[in-house]
Amino acid sequence: MIILHHLNNSRSQRILWLLEELGAAYEIKRYQRDAVTNLAPPELKQVHPLGKSPVIEDGEVRIAESGAIVDYLVRRHGGGRFAPAPGTTAHEAYLEWLHYAEGSAMLPLMINLYVMRLGDAAAPLKDRIDSEIDNNLGYIEQALAGHDYILREGFTGADVQLSFVGEVARAFGRLARFPNIAAWVARLHDRPAFKASIEKGGVYNLA
Ligand SMILES: N[C@@H](CCC(=O)N[C@@H](CS)C(=O)NCC(=O)O)C(=O)O
């Protein structure tokens, strides 16, 4: 049985969504953010030294880092679904998107989140942050042109992994110039498995 260590209102939501897409048997262990600091509770450090979510356990396997979790779940429990066949060019593109989401695209969005707390003191950083957010959103926007999902082959784990980027960008009001991303996020949120994950995961401010 897969165990998902799920922090409310977090990146863990997309793993819960993927588990619903897979139709896998799983159990949720729930953790609540601190109402004041918004940080994870200390118990998560007993699950993984970083104290972050998501983390999954599956028998002997324990994985933190959502891109690695998506990769593992699709390989181990996907039954050939949700990723192009290994060895194909499309599979390499799939892996690139899996890594890109947290490795590149989230960075300027996270910096933006942090510096927003500085108020006027953040002004010298604003142009650079904005241009890097635009650079990444422009890349995703162009990749979505002409198809419904990030790979032209159809819906994959890469959409699940990259969804958080679209959701956070939308929450920051950044999608007015990126209609393909806005439509894609809406399309993903319309999937029955996404809706089921919201039922199970609790309030998700980015839905
Ligand atoms: N790159 C990691 C990020 C994990 C992460 O930062 N998770 C956040 C939730 S979105 C968290 O656990 N925050 C609680 C804290 O920092 O105390 C991943 O994608 O899994």
Shape: globular
Order of helices and strands: EHEHEEHHHHHH
Bound molecules: glutathione
List unreliable stretches of 5+ residues.
none
Instruction: Work out the helicity level.
Output: 40-55%
Radius of gyration: 17 Å
Total strand count, please?
Answer: 4
Tally of alpha and pi helices:
8
Strand fraction band? 5-15%
- Order the strands across the largest sheet as they lie in space: 2-1-3-4
Mean pLDDT: 97
N-C termini distance: 27 Å
Instruction: Return the structural class.
Output: alpha+beta
The largest β sheet comes out as: 4 strands, mixed
3D architecture notes:
- It is a single chain.
- The protein is 54% helix and 10% strand.
- The chain is of the alpha+beta class.
- Strand 3 and strand 4 form a beta hairpin.
- The two termini are 27 Å apart.
- The mean pLDDT is 97.
- Bound molecules: glutathione.
Give a quick precis of the structure.
The protein has about 210 residues and is an alpha+beta fold. It has helices at about 10-20, 45, 65-75, 90-115, 125-145, 155-170, 180-190, 190-200, and strands at about 1-5, 25-30, 55-60, 60-65. The site of glutathione (GSH) has 11 residues, from loops.
Topology diagram in text:
Blueprint: E1 2-7, H1 12-22, E2 26-31, H2 44-47, E3 55-58, E4 61-64, H3 66-77, H4 89-115, H5 123-144, H6 157-171, H7 179-189, H8 192-201
Parallel strand pairs: 1-2
Antiparallel strand pairs: 1-3, 3-4
Glutathione (GSH) binds at residues 7, 10-11, 39-40, 52-54, 65-66, 102.
